[in-house]
Amino acid sequence: MRSSSYGSTSKDSEIGHGFIAKEPVKVENDDFIPVRSPRWSGIALSLSISLGFLVFLSIYLKASAGFTTDPSVLTSANELKFSVSNEYGQSVKGYKWDHIVEPYRLTTLTAILNDDDQEGTYIWVVGDTVSSTKVAYYTFQDVGFNLVNVSWTSLDGETKLSASSQVACKYVRREMRAMTVSDRERFLDTLRLLYDLKTKDGQASYGEKYKDIHYFVKKHLHGAAALDCDHWHDNAGIMTHHLAFTLELEQTLQAVDPAISVPYWEYTKDSILHADGDWESSEVFLDEWFGVASPTSNDHVVTEGRWAYAPIMSDASDYSNITNSYGLLRSPWNTNPTAYFTRYDKVLGNEFYNNFPTCTQFSECIKRPSIAQINECLNGETHGPVHIMIGGQWGSVSSAVAMKEYGLAPQHLLLAKNLWRHGYVKCPDSCDDSSSECKCSCPASQLDTTPYKILTEKTGLLHWIDDSSRAIYFDEDDGEYHIQGFTAEMEAGAWQDILDALCDPGHAGEMYTSAAPYDPTFWVLHTAAERLLQYRRMQADVSPLDETWGFAHMNAASDVGVVCDWSSVENGGDSLPTCTAKLCEGHGATDTLPFSDFLGHGETYSNMQFYDFMEPNNDQILYVYDNFEWEHCESQGVSMDVSVSSSQSIPPPAAV
């Protein structure tokens, strides 16, 4: 198991490892018997440990003499158990472990006797530390397992009882709104630190696990904004990549403050709270949380609160071979010159989503019978819209009429990105000002055939345009696409207009691009998806789950199943890549993930190995989720019970 050796800003971690008295902090020797203290040194350390251990051994041996689980002694009238709790209440339930405690968080250990009126003495032993109170307080530090033993001896010495259990110490990920103010502030403050403290400086202070935000954005860009294909999305590797990515960020945050875990944002709650479309008023967009959902300034920059002017790396070409035309660490097709992360609540002036994914969508997704089908909905409708709602798109005016008339706007950016991968869209190598002339286009030299053939034979884009356009249709008789009411000559002009419209992606907010990790909301989306996936895997005995590696491909503009080989294309040349239907590297079961060393042993993972590693009840998993309850969904008549089909519903509770 990974042991925490990081520096700490945690109040609990300051008290050290072992039993403590909660109030008052200074305790009497009768109640607290430390066997060792990491703060002692030299001869005093050796002498104190020796004497302390003798005291411990004497007490423990006396207390343990006669311990038994013999039913004749452990009668139904008096049985000893114990519970664990902390400021959030009782131990997390739903997993295989009887007791779950959290590292660097004060834990309350409570002895429980059936006959609570019977007086006696208690002895707690955790590792080499002893306490002699009925209720003990202990701060665990190492993620892993700790043997906890409590014994009770009646005052007359006639009855001796004991209870012991291996307690699992794991980080607990909680919903943003369920966190204490202190925990939420620590998470947000430490995440914000990553924008200002560079990797080199952070590692000097906090160790090699520390990485700045630009490291994470670069990693995501190299996976999602590669020229050949998207190595992270729209296929079977979607969840393994993003869950490993989140864990890597979590360990960076823990390098700064070892008590932190990454929360999740259960935005289906917001779909109910803001069902009338005022989703931007969700409390997650308060200045002190994630900042305004859609800034009103022309450059769409958050200017107030914790995330005001959170920077994008500039002059990034020496750091990453993927940048935009201004040298900013952005997607190449996003020619936004603003050096801060941006947000906009519309896509080319349209509001295609006025609410978050709903309980019904979550319920339908989680009841699917295979991991391949669940991968698809976790990639798509259950979380994709949140990226678009927060990121948004603006600034593309090449053919606004064509986008509106032919229904291009909903998928415009995804279609433009496909044209870019196929080599038709070219973006300037560099721009030195914020001129409106700095934009992507389709140079005439790249157009090797007619617009219609580019949109069909070369890229297949009309297939997805047809799916969202009321005007365009496919005629099975002649095997071609047409536009309702248009002559052949009119259609030729329309195909040119459509191609022109797709050649200029305009600008997009970070959440709608491959630089999405710059937006802090990115990090609490995938934890919500993992919680859903964990729940489904744990319910496999209730409703069978086919865990064969795969992805159930759907009709989506981002899911093209094509890999473009650029190896023969000269830099800056006019030749086009060779694009063929094949699996993008990164999505195969045995493909190696670009993440490693989560347990501190230098280990690496294939997709399938990491999928096994993140099995909810895997002893090695480093974290759990606080609960698997969706009471807000049940209150709306939507059941998350996997044994209840999606077509069924439960009646909402009667009004009182």
From TrEMBL:
Protein origin, superkingdom: Eukaryota
Coiled-coil intervals, chain numbering: none
InterPro entries, alphabetized: Di-copper_centre_dom_sf, Tyrosinase/Hemocyanin, Tyrosinase_Cu-bd
GO molecular function, a single term: oxidoreductase activity
Keyword list, A-Z: Copper, Membrane, Metal-binding, Transmembrane, Transmembrane helix
UniProt cross-references to Pfam families, sorted A to Z: Tyrosinase
Annotated TM spans: 42-61
Residue ranges constituting the Tyrosinase copper-binding domain according to the UniProt record: 222-400
Entry-linked PANTHER family: TYROSINASE FAMILY MEMBER, TYROSINASE-LIKE PROTEIN TYR-1-RELATED
Protein name: Tyrosinase copper-binding domain-containing protein
Species the sequence originates in: Octactis speculum
